Structures are given as C-alpha cells and as structure tokens.
Amino acid sequence: MAFESGLSAVVLLVGRLLFGGLLVYQGLNHFAATDTMAGYAEAKGVPAARFGVVASGVMLVLGGVGIVLGVYPVIAAGMLAVFFVLVTPFMHDFWAVPEEQQQDELIHFMKNVELLGTALLVFVLAGEPWGYALNIGL
C-alpha cells in the first residue's frame, strides 16, 4: 500500500505529527524535569535513574522526530517499541503499588501499551515511502 499521495498521505501525516510530536514533547520533558523524574525512577528501584531518565528522553525525542520527518522510521519505531517494552512494567507496576496508587499506575500502564501498539504499527508501515516525509533510511 502506498502512502505517497492523496488522503492516506494526509491522514498519515496527521497521525505522525500527533504520535511523534507528543513523544518529542514527552522526551523534552525528561530534560526539563530530570531531577524530579530521576527521583521518581529511584523510588521505583531503577538503577542509574538519572542516566535512565536522560537516555529515555533521547529515545523519545529521536524516535518522535524520526516518525514526524520520516527519517529512519523503522529504527525510530523500533527504538520506541523497545522503550515502551522496557519502561512500562518497571515504571507503571500497578500490581505492586499501594491500593491508592493502583488506578493511576494502571492508567499509565495502559497508555504505554497503547503507544507500544502504535509504535509497532508504524514499524510495519515504515517500509513504504510516506507522503510529506523525507523518506530517509527506508
């Protein structure tokens, strides 16, 4: 299926902007709130929490930019999928927190699973040229 022109190219662009753009925003937040996020990660038992926050911020920004621009989209989507597989059960372990925190952690867990699903869809779709994209590294 080609995504180079027509309505499908426009819809794919909007989806890329929403998905990738929000991931870039989240990644930049890792740099703006590194200390706060590192403290939370430490509380969750993450080793080298500060490094993990910065590294995950880099993954989110690079993955998001890659999807928005169509630059190495398979690598970008794969990197995001790895991020969500590793981070989700570690940071949003709703089964292991006190009852008053379970609902919040479950919501974040489910959101990350949804984003993982989207990253996997993009991973599959990234083999085709995209309209309104640089299409580098296909």
TrEMBL record:
> What topology in the membrane does the UniProt record assign?
Multi-pass membrane protein
Transmembrane region(s)? 6-28, 48-69, 75-95, 115-133
**InterPro entries, per the entry:** DoxX (IPR032808), Glu_synth_asu_C_sf (IPR036485)
**Annotated GO CC locations:** membrane
Under Pfam families, the record lists: DoxX (PF07681)
Could you list this entry's UniProt keywords, alphabetically sorted.
Answer: Membrane, Transmembrane, Transmembrane helix
**What Gene Ontology molecular-function terms does this entry list?**
oxidoreductase activity
Highest taxon of source:
Archaea
Which cell locations does it reside in?
Answer: Membrane
Q: Among its keywords, does the record have S-adenosyl-L-methionine?
A: no
What is the recorded name of this protein?
A: DoxX family protein
